Amino acid sequence: MAFTSSGLKDSDIVFFDGACNLCNASVTFLIDIDRKKRLHFASLQSATAQSFLTLTESIDLLGEGASIILYTKGRIFRKSRAILEILRLVGLPWSLGYAGIVIPPFILDWLYDFVAKRRYRWFGKSDSCRVPTAELKERFLN
């Protein structure tokens, strides 16, 4: 499904590193806590992510440290800001984590980069991307 024809430009889309075990576990967690089913997901390695890349600014989606990117309301959030915005979107009690916005971005992004650069070493890497179950297929855009 192409990003342009899908009508998903107004959706909340979490792009994640499909080979990253930490990222896949995070997606599972987000699916569990997103009771309103606002979030859609696509791996950074997918055709959906590549279509997205051509429609937006030139982002190195697979660059070092790229593990989670949020697209919401026409805006792109990366690194720690993406995580804070995702927490805000899923609602209480998780949205309370958005209070972290008061911490200077350079501190949060340093922490994000510290984990992102070590995520494969600490949590492992998968040779294949996640395949959603039948009931979750509507949430994945691959």
From TrEMBL:
Under InterPro entries, the record lists: DCC1-like, DCC_oxidoreductase
Segments spanning the bilayer are 92-112
Q: Which GO terms describe its molecular function?
A: protein-disulfide reductase activity
The domain of life is: Bacteria
For this UniProt record, the keywords arranged alphabetically read as follows: Membrane, Transmembrane, Transmembrane helix
Instruction: Give the Pfam families listed for this entry.
Output: DCC1-like (PF04134)
**Protein name per its UniProtKB record:** PF04134 family protein
